């Protein structure tokens, strides 16, 4: 199975993937344009999604699966992929823990009046640095 990636991970990770999945013929490139003809003959394409156009999809002959390595698929030509029977998967939920942590941090900051605390700290620091307040 020919697998082309427009994401160029570090060499160590590439070698690990090749070792762990010997049935795949992996090709890694820095962007879809660098992939050239390899992309058009691929069965699986790994991408962040922003480099893939409808024109690219229409020129493929063997593409069966697109793996989008991000949560969003706004840039993917979904209708064209559906018409050609190409499966699309993504990294849905990849940001769920960081987003939950961020939301909790914002809520705690609001409850603890973090903005007011920083304002008062800044005023104190200015007073100390200007010599108006002594420690």
From TrEMBL:
Enzyme class of the recorded protein, top EC level: oxidoreductase
Keywords for this protein: NAD, Oxidoreductase
Annotated SUPFAM superfamilies: Formate/glycerate dehydrogenase catalytic domain-like
Entry EC number(s): 1.1.1.95
One Pfam family from the record: 2-Hacid_dh
Signal peptide as annotated in the record: none
GO molecular function: NAD binding; phosphoglycerate dehydrogenase activity
InterPro entries in alphabetical order: D-isomer_2_OHA_DH_cat_dom
Residue span(s) of domain D-isomer specific 2-hydroxyacid dehydrogenase catalytic: 23-103
The protein's name: D-3-phosphoglycerate dehydrogenase
């Amino acid at each position: 199975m020919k697998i082309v990636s427009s994401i160029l991970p570090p060499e160590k990770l590439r070698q690990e993937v090749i070792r762990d999945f010997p049935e795949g013929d992996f090709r890694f490139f820095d962007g879809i344009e660098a992939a050239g003809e390899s992309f058009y003959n691929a069965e699986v394409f790994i991408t962040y999604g922003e480099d893939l156009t409808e024109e690219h999809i229409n020129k493929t002959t063997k593409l069966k699966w697109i793996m989008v390595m991000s949560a969003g698929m706004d840039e993917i030509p979904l209708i064209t992929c559906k018409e050609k029977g190409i499966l699309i998967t993504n990294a849905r939920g990849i940001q769920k823990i960081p987003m939950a942590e961020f939301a909790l941090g914002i809520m705690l900051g609001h409850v603890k009046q973090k903005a007011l605390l920083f304002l008062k700290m800044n005023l104190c620091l200015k007073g100390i640095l200007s010599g108006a307040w002594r420690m």
